[in-house]
Design goal:
It is built from 11 helices and 8 strands. By secondary structure, the chain is of the alpha/beta class.
């Protein structure tokens, strides 16, 4: 898989009230994103609640999605968040065996050293040796060094030990760092995860973006991406501002990011992705009908949808 450009939705994990994976919805979600011409999908990260699902549930959902995709759209499988690092290695091997196009992981923890993380990434790469590996970068790289800010040149040099390293899911707002990555490694595939700043990241050299908001605004973000490439900056910026109206609306404490996105997936696209994980931060989330209606109204007022 060559480096991707464009917009990749962060894939939701559909769950019933008891936290069981609704695998029957994999085809509907994948078909939706293929129709809207996603550059790929990124699953089991924050939006996919990978941190709050068992290894077995993550495997079940990965198999369902990869079976539904059938090579029609690139699928990135996030395999991190595990206290037992053997679980990450097992998930990487499983993803590769079932046809994943890339694997990805956050760092081990906020206490692990850079060398610890490099050894961990090498193990993931070894378990999935024929597909690319992407770092899930957050907090200026401090999660990769035990809290010390990390310079692009330092991590690029260290990652030479990871043979399948191909890119970064750059969930950060320091786009100077992004630009330095591109200066020192022009072929590094950088897909940003700051949904509300995707427009800015593209101006600074990002190849594309991955995000929770894009899970329900893919077409809108694709139009933004196209306008930037055509030099229509004012028009593209306006689309970012409009998307941010939705982001602000679901950030309301009465709704919440993930519950709001799951609600929009059902109300706008008719795909009942259900509840948030009973082991996650939104386990008791209930959105009042008045708040749900307001969120849907703001979405319909601001977001472009394909005809």
């Amino acid at each position: 898989m060559k480096g991707l450009t464009g917009v990749l939705p962060a894939l939701l994990t559909p769950l019933d009230k008891d936290g069981n994976v609704k695998t029957e919805l994999a085809a509907a979600l994948i078909d939706l994103y293929i129709r809207q011409k996603a550059a790929g999908v990124y699953m089991l990260g924050w939006t996919g609640e990978g941190a709050y699902l068992s290894v077995e549930k993550r495997k079940i959902w990965a198999e369902a999605v990869l079976s539904a995709a059938k090579g029609r759209i690139p699928v990135f499988v996030h395999v991190g968040y595990n206290e037992n690092l053997d679980d990450s290695v097992e998930l990487a091997a499983h993803a590769a065996a079932h046809g994943a196009d890339a694997v990805s992981s956050v760092g081990i923890s906020t206490k692990a050293t850079l060398d610890d993380n490099i050894q961990y990434f090498k193990r993931i790469s070894g378990a999935a040796p024929n597909i690319p590996f992407y770092i899930y970068w957050v907090m200026q790289g401090t999660t990769l060094t035990g809290g010390r800010p990390l310079q692009p040149t330092e991590i690029l040099e260290a990652m030479k030990a990871v043979p399948t390293f191909a890119g970064i899911k750059f969930t950060d707002t320091n786009f100077y760092t992004l630009e330095r990555f591109k200066k020192h490694a022009p072929d590094l595939n950088i897909l940003t995860g700051a949904d509300e700043l995707a427009f800015c990241s593209q101006l600074m050299g990002a190849d594309g973006n991955i995000g929770a908001l894009q899970a329900v605004t893919l077409y809108h973000y694709r139009e933004m991406f196209r306008l930037v490439n055509e030099g229509k900056i004012k028009e593209a910026r306006d689309l970012q501002y409009r998307a941010n109206e939705v982001s602000e609306a679901y950030a309301d404490s009465r709704i919440g990011n993930l519950p709001g996105i799951k609600l929009l997936m059902e109300r706008i696209y008719g795909i009942p992705v259900g509840y948030c994980s009973p082991d996650g931060p939104y386990k008791d989330a209930v959105i009042a009908e008045e708040d749900a209606d307001r969120l849907v109204e703001i979405f319909r007022k601001n977001i472009l949808l394909p005809e």
